[in-house]
Design brief:
Elements: H1 2-35, H2 38-73, H3 82-115, H4 118-148
Helix pairs in contact: 1-2, 1-4, 2-3, 2-4, 3-4
């Protein structure tokens, strides 16, 4: 029962984080670019990230904790198959990239939007876009690892 709940939390956190990145990167971004002028677009992204990023923090914490508990249940890293090592490694890289994204370019974007410095806000948003694209790719690879290598 406990293991099933851990897997459930792990999958839900993955869906929230990776699904949110997919929606933002592949759907919201193209729509915002074609319909909104830069000041409105940047204000929209500030609002979207302000609502999405707390969910990402919860998801990251849930993923790391549930993943480590499940690894412990399987006997630790020395006892788990190679695909688990890959998943854990990718997960920690993703968490580190997200922390950087949140504390550096997102913080810069918030400051720039508040100051009305649209070029600086746009540059920060471009850094965020690249990092989200990288994390989205890593997240999709991690999901594939579960189904292909196990």
């Amino acid at each position: 029962m406990i293991h099933s709940l851990l897997v459930l939390f792990h999958v839900l956190a993955t869906v929230i984080w990776v699904g949110g990145m997919f929606f933002a990167h592949q759907c919201l971004r193209p729509a915002a670019i074609t319909t909104l002028e830069p000041p409105l677009r940047l204000a929209l992204w500030r609002g979207v990230f302000g609502r999405f990023f707390p969910w990402v923090w919860v998801s990251v914490i849930a993923l790391l904790l549930s993943g480590q508990v499940m690894v412990g249940q399987m006997g630790g890293m020395a006892a788990v198959p190679v695909h688990v090592h890959i998943m854990v490694g990718i997960g920690y890289v993703m968490a580190a990239l997200y922390a950087y994204l949140y504390f550096v370019p997102f913080a810069a974007m918030k400051r720039a939007v508040m100051a009305g410095d649209w070029p600086a806000a746009g540059a920060a948003l471009n850094r965020i876009r690249a990092l989200v694209g990288t994390n989205l790719t890593l997240g999709l690879v991690n999901i594939a690892v579960v189904f292909v290598l196990r």
